[in-house]
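Appendix B: a complete holo record

For completeness, this appendix reproduces one full record from the ligand-bound portion of the collection. The bound molecule is 2-acetamido-2-deoxy-beta-D-glucopyranose. The inputs are the chain sequence and the ligand SMILES; the output is the full three-dimensional arrangement of the complex, encoded as structure tokens. No fields have been trimmed.
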Amino acid sequence: MRLELGCLVLWIQLLPWGPGSFADANFTVVQSPSEVGVIRGDNATLNCTFSRGLSPDKGAVSWSRGGPGGEAAVPLRTRFALAYPDTFLRRGEGTLAITNVSLEDAGKYVCRVLLWGTGEAQGNGTQLRVYARPSHPVIFLQFHPKPESKWTLVCRTAGFYPPPARLTWYRGSVHLLPTQPLQECGDPTGPLQASTTLDLPSSGPRATYTCQVGHPSLLVPLSTDYTYDPQHQEPPSLIAGLNLLKIALLGALSLGVGLAGPVGGLA
Ligand SMILES: *[C@@H]1O[C@H](CO)[C@@H](O)[C@H](O)[C@H]1NC(C)=O
Ligand SMILES: *[C@@H]1O[C@H](CO)[C@@H](O)[C@H](O)[C@H]1NC(C)=O
Ligand SMILES: *[C@@H]1O[C@H](CO)[C@@H](O)[C@H](O)[C@H]1NC(C)=O
Ligand SMILES: *[C@@H]1O[C@H](CO)[C@@H](O)[C@H](O)[C@H]1NC(C)=O
Ligand SMILES: *[C@@H]1O[C@H](CO)[C@@H](O)[C@H](O)[C@H]1NC(C)=O
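The structure of the chain with 2-acetamido-2-deoxy-beta-D-glucopyranose bound, as generated:
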């Protein structure tokens, strides 16, 4: 069995854009902090304050978002709302609240305040970064009959954003280099999956291997163990081959990975 390789990851950088405050108003708009990171599904608060809060002026607050596709107004409905819709002018607040943040919400948000008869000012923008957590890593055993028969471990994770996720192998506390470097698959603007492969020794004592996944969305890495004993690992019988096939197919179904080429375990 071979994993479908050849996946290409394009990481489109959001271009910083736009100048700072307008000069035509005698008040300022402050967006702080300038960068907010949030996990997909959580809520985000993008602060915007302006220095004319206590005045009785009438005015309006609007938000726009810039991303790879250009800048667009943010409609203040459904998941997007002003945090203080009724009192924003009095409080000097145009803070934006976003609920259930999705990956598509990422971008640079600019707060604009218009006070009638006074002018318009805009903040320097807040970069919203949205992260998705990787799944717990899954390890499975693979048999390669050719060119020389060998066993390998494959470790997989899915669902993370943005790339990259760090996949590392350990035997005990010893860091091992992967045989096949990280493969990342999927639509580069959506949740991604990654896998890495480790060759197993054909002899030696029983050992426990750990695959660890690190990602900026995780406070602590996720890890999974696999114990392998070269003494008790016969070349696969038909039954073991079928089990391998079943595991591979389950993995493929759950992760949406295509299987390419013949199933080595049956050879
Ligand atoms: C906005 O950016 C400009 C230029 O980088 C800087 O001079 C200004 O102090 C910033 N304004 C705020 C409110 O942070
Ligand atoms: C997000 O906000 C909504 C509405 O205010 C609230 O019901 C929900 O519990 C919040 N979710 C989180 C993860 O804080
Ligand atoms: C927004 O501003 C308030 C006070 O001005 C601050 O306590 C809060 O941490 C800020 N929000 C975020 C998301 O940083
Ligand atoms: C959050 O949005 C996702 C789609 O992005 C949706 O599937 C999910 O049901 C929403 N969750 C809540 C609590 O509204
Ligand atoms: C800002 O301008 C408005 C009208 O142009 C004026 O009424 C107000 O006093 C000014 N405020 C300050 C702080 O200069």
